[in-house]
Amino acid sequence: MHLTRLALTDFRSYTEAVLSLEPGVSTLLGPNGQGKTNLVEAAAYVSTLGSHRVATDAPLVRSGAERAILRAAVTSGDRDSLVEIEINPGRANRARLNRAPVSRPRQVLGVLRAVLFAPEDLALVKGDPDQRRRFLDDLLVASAPRYAGVRADYERVLRQRTALLKSLRARPGRAARRSQPQRSRPRRSRPRRGQPRRGGPARGAPGGPGGRDAGCLGRAPGDGRS
Ligand SMILES: Nc1ncnc2c1ncn2[C@@H]1O[C@H](COP(=O)(O)OP(=O)(O)OP(=O)(O)O)[C@@H](O)[C@H]1O
Ligand SMILES: [Mg+2]
């Protein structure tokens, strides 16, 4: 697989930029702040639909511009593909594959498969578990793009759960009243510590609810990904 051409419009510091890349190693040289990492970030965005530096799309759009557009020509074996992504902060992003619009941008995942290593990756070792989980999720989607849909569904449900918990916390009286009938039900014996809960792994175990090192696509409650 070879990224042969990368074109940026209103992405980060670039109004317009076109980068042609030969097979083999390419090195970007330039003074600090000239936009080298911005180019690498653009290529990685085409690969993952996300940035390694920021959690939202807004900082990726050049200051003063409404949207950014990335175009990437990719050669894989004897096949040429063109991926185009329009980044619209606050609105849905759009994408085209070989000039045909796709219904969801994630349908272009897998066309460009890239691995980015950046200073920020030190967070994998030094940072919180959610960064390691995100890395594993990214890795899963990079190796099997069909999981992008599963991940999107999971993150939507997680947001819904967080919103529900917040709304219950905001109305403690109602939440307490709702929980009363449950208390009057016959109590089941609690699973012993470390034993699997019914229908899932033990709380605190890898992949289980509340596990600090919950596995791929697992999240500890309130780990800030809502
Ligand atoms: N949304 C944006 N709009 C306009 N300019 C931006 C935007 N985001 C970043 N920049 C500019 O991009 C520049 C940083 O680019 P980048 O991080 O690619 O530099 P670099 O060449 O990698 O530098 P270094 O050698 O220090 O790593 C800064 O001048 C910053 O102001
Ligand atoms: Mg840099």
Topology:
Elements: E1 2-11, E2 14-20, H1 36-48, E3 68-76, E4 79-87, E5 94-97, E6 100-101, H2 123-126, H3 129-143, H4 147-170, H5 172-184
Antiparallel strand pairs: 1-2, 1-3, 3-4, 4-5, 5-6
The chain binds adenosine-5'-triphosphate and magnesium ion.
Structure summary:
This protein is α+β, with helices and mostly antiparallel strands and 226 residues long. It is built from five helices and six strands.
Question: Can you characterise this structure?
Answer:
- With 226 residues, the chain is α+β, with helices and mostly antiparallel strands.
- It is 31% helix and 18% strand.
- It folds into two domains: 1-23 and 36-116, P-loop containing nucleotide triphosphate hydrolases (Rossmann fold, 3-Layer(aba) Sandwich); 117-172, no CATH class.
- A six-stranded antiparallel sheet has the order 2-1-3-4-5-6, covered by helices on one side.
- The longest helix is centred in the last third of the chain and has 24 residues, at 147-170.
- The radius of gyration is 22 Å and the shape is globular.
- Residues 189-226 have low confidence and may be disordered.
- Bound molecules: adenosine-5'-triphosphate and magnesium ion (MG).
- Residues 12-13, 30, 32-38, 59, 61-63 line the site of adenosine-5'-triphosphate.
